[in-house]
C-alpha cells in the first residue's frame, strides 16, 4: 500500500519541481503571477517571464534574485519591448533561443556561435547561458549582453556597455551609459533626452572616466563586489573600494548603473527576511556637482535642480519655487514655470512687466550653464535688481561680488552643500495666482537690443529697422480715414452688421469673463481675456478682445470694418471670430480660444518642439497667409506677422490671429501707401523707404518667422555674439559655408532631414530679400516649402543685383 501511494505521488512531485534548464524544442509562456521559470542550482537566481504590472498584462524575459525583497532584476532581454500574455520563449532545434509576442512576431533572440546546443540554463552566478554538447564553454551567455547591472565574476570587455533604465520601474533604455571603449578607457556618458541612446545620436561629453586610455582591457567585478579595470600589464585600477566587511558568503553583491547615471555597488545580507539593498560605494559620488557641462538638461532635466539625500546618496530632483514638474512620474523631464515669465514685449503694452515679479533667495543652488551676462563688482541686492529689470533674466547667481545672469531653460541645476557663499536669486511672480499659466494672445511691439554692424559693411535698413518707431497712432488714423473713404465700396452703412456672427451684450461678456478677470495678453489696441460661454449644459472657452474705448465719429465705422474683415475669412489656419459686442464706446470681439498659447511661447519655452512639429507649423502659417493674399474676395495684408500672433490650437495647428492692423485692398489694387505698421524685427525694409506697400511685406515677415521656427530662437539676439546676433545674416553665412547643422545646434531631427532643412532655409532667405520684387508670392512660398517647386540658391538678402538673380513673381 505504501509503495502504491509513493507511485501515485511521484508524478505530482515531478510536476511541482521548478525546472533547472530549457531543453531543445521546449518553451516557456507567461501565465500571470505563477508563470513558469527556470532557477539556478542554488536557487539564488531565476530566469523567466516577470510581470511588469499588477494585472499581469505585460512581461519581461528577465533574470532576477529570488531570495531578496522585491526580487531585483539584473538582466532583461526585452526592456524596450515588453510582451503580453500568450508570448513564448522557445529553444529551437537550430540552437536559437527566440522570444515571440502573442502574435508570433520575433521580439528578441539569442543566436549562438554553434549549432550543437543542448539546453539553456540558469547558473548560480546569475549568468543565463546556452550550453553545448560535451563542451565546458557556452555558445551564448547573458553576461556578454548586460543591461544595467554587472555581477561578481562578470566582465565588461572592449565595446561592451551598461545602459541605465529610464526609471526604477521602466526597464527601457535610459539616459546614461557606461562604456568600455576600444581604446581601453572606461567612460560614463549621458545621451540627449530626445534621442534614444542607441539611435546614433552624438552623446554629451563624458562626465567621468577611469583614465586608462591605452592600458585598460576590461571591467571586472570581484567576488566582494569591488569594481576595477584590468590593465594589460596584469595589474588593475580599482574604481569602487573593496568593502571587507561584506564577505560574499554572507552578502549578495551587484553593481548597477542607476537611472541617475551613478554606478552603485549594492550589498544585501543573505538569509535575511525583509532585508534591503545597501549602497557600499558609488561612482561618481558627486553626480549632481560633476555633471555640469554646457549642453544638455543635466541629471534632473531643464529648470530643476539635483541633490543627493539619505545614506544611499540617491539623487533627488526638485523644482524651484513656483515651478512644477512637466511629468511628476518622470521627473527627469524637468520643470516648467507656473507663471507667465516676464515678457520683453511688456514695454509695448503686453505680457508681464518687471513690477509683477520679485526675487526668491535660494542658498547653495546653482545652474552653472547658460550665463549670458556677468556683472562685477555688485552686491546681492544689485544683482537681484539687475535680474528684475532684465526681461531675459530668469535667475541670477551671486557669489561674493560676482553676479551671473541666466535665461530659460536652466541647465544642470544642483544643490551644492560645499557652496556656502552662493545664492540663486530666482525671479518669480509677486502674486503666484495673478498670471498663472497665462498665454500671450496679442502681443505688442518687440523691444530690440542695439543694432550690430555687419563685418562686410553696414546695412542701413537694419539700422532703420532697429532704430525706427512704429507710428501706431498714425496707422490707426489712416485706417479710420481709409475705411470711411471706402465706405460705399465695402457696403458698410450702419452699426448693424449683415454678417453671420453672434451679437453679445456687454453684460454677457462681463459674466463670461468673470468681470474680465483672467488676462491672456495685451496689445496696442486692446486687452484679451479668457472667458467661458455656458449653453445647454456645455461650456465653450472663448478669448474676448476688449478694444480701447473710442467715443467719436469714426470709432464705430473702424470697429465695423475690423469685424467685417475678420468675419469674411474662414480657414483652418486662421483664428475664427465667433461674435462681437458694440454698445456705445464699449466694443469687444469674441474669438475661438487657443488652448496651447502662441508660437512665441512654444519656440522659446523650456522644451524645444520637435522638428516635424515645427515644419508643420511653418506650413500652416504659409497656407493661412496664402488664403489672406489670394483666396479672400478682398485681398488682406496682415501687416504684423510674428510668433506672438500665431496661436496653437488643441490639434497643434498654427492659427494666424490679430487682424487689428490688417490692410484690405480693393479688387484690382495691388499696392498702397501708408505709414509704418507691424513689429520691429519683422517689418520689411520698404516701410522705411516710403515705397508702395504690397503683400510682399507679409512675405518678408514670414521669412523672418520661418528662420525663428527652424532655429527656435529670436531673429535678433544681442547675447549670441556678433556673428550670430542677427539670425538672417547668420543663416546666410551657414548656408554659404555648408554648415547648416550649426543653425539647429546639432539637433537630431533636422540633421536626419537635411534636404528639407536646406530647402526651408533657402525659402526663408528668398522671403527676406531687401528688394520686394525678388521675394516670392505666398503661393510660390507654399509650393517651395512643400517641394512642388524647386528652390534656387538665394543671394545675400541685402546684395540685390538685378542682372544676376531670378525675380520671383
TrEMBL record:
Subcellular location: Membrane
Keywords linked to the UniProt accession: ATP-binding, Disulfide bond, EGF-like domain, Glycoprotein, Hemagglutinin, Kinase, Lectin, Mannose-binding, Membrane, Nucleotide-binding, Plant defense, Receptor, Repeat, Serine/threonine-protein kinase, Signal, Transferase, Transmembrane, Transmembrane helix
MF GO annotations: ATP binding; D-mannose binding; protein serine/threonine kinase activity
Residues annotated as signal peptide: 1-17
Reaction catalysed by this enzyme: L-threonyl-[protein] + ATP = O-phospho-L-threonyl-[protein] + ADP + H(+); L-seryl-[protein] + ATP = O-phospho-L-seryl-[protein] + ADP + H(+)
EC numbers on record: 2.7.11.1
Residues reported in the UniProt entry to bind ATP: 545
Domain Bulb-type lectin: 13-143
Gene Ontology biological process terms, A to Z: defense response; response to other organism
Name under which the protein is recorded: Receptor-like serine/threonine-protein kinase
UniProt domain Protein kinase: residue ranges: 514-789
Organism: Colocasia esculenta
Topology relative to the membrane: Single-pass type I membrane protein
Function: Involved in resistance against the herbivorous insect brown planthopper (N.lugens, BPH). Member of the BPH3 (BPH resistance locus 3) cluster which contains LECRK1, LECRK2 and LECRK3.
Superkingdom, taxonomy of origin: Eukaryota
Family under the similarity heading: Belongs to the protein kinase superfamily. Ser/Thr protein kinase family.
